[in-house]
Design brief:
Elements lengths: L3 E5 L5 H5 L1 H8 L5 E5 L2 H6 L1 H6 L4 E3 L14 H11 L3 E5 L2 H4 L9 H12 L4 E3 L6 H4 L8 H29 L4
Parallel strand pairs: 1-2, 2-3, 3-4, 4-5
């Protein structure tokens, strides 16, 4: 049932970045994707590499881009471009991680989330981020998963909600909707 690999490049380990392309080349023939978690600064530096990956990319946690960076940071433009080209997916997960208020209730998340949905609604999936490792470690308040779903419904609207929760994951993960 494996469908992809996840690489956490948040720690800035250079050798890990050197492994992205070889790992993507190994998983591409299997139909797997490469899920990435990294700061926006690192993401912007890897534009050439990410544009050339042979496997689909999934950006975790709203690509770690804060609402203040939307529309201004090169990483945001890259993610929107890759989404629009159908080369990438994005998880609308962990909004509380990118919010300056550390809350999914932050109204600043609205434009960011809707911008991703508008870029390519067929390439957006949702995740709860359970078990909320950083919140469990006391780095921010524990999010309410039910409220996170409510916020997704606010962002997606009724027309896109089923697509994000059912059809898109079925396509990405290869199961029947």
């Amino acid at each position: 049932g494996v469908r992809g690999i996840r690489l956490n490049l948040s720690l800035g380990v250079t050798s890990t970045i050197d492994h992205v392309l070889p790992l993507a080349a190994r998983v591409a023939p299997l139909g797997w994707h490469v899920q990435l978690l990294m700061p926006p600064e690192r993401l912007a530096q890897l534009e050439g590499l990410l544009s050339a990956l042979p496997a689909p990319i999934v950006f975790d946690h709203m690509a770690r881009i804060s609402p203040a960076q939307a529309g201004t940071h090169p990483a945001h433009a890259l993610v929107l471009r890759l989404l629009g080209q159908g080369r990438a997916w994005l998880k609308l997960s962990g909004g509380y991680l990118v919010s300056p208020r550390h809350s999914v209730e932050d109204p600043a998340l609205d434009a960011l989330a809707r911008g991703y949905l508008d870029a390519n609604p067929e390439r957006i999936v949702w995740g709860s981020d359970w078990p909320h490792a950083s919140a469990s470690a006391g780095m921010q308040p524990m999010p309410d998963d039910a409220r996170q779903l409510d916020r997704l419904a606010d962002w997606a609207g009724s027309a896109r909600l089923r697509q994000v929760l059912v059809h898109n994951p079925a396509t990405l993960y290869g199961f029947a909707a």
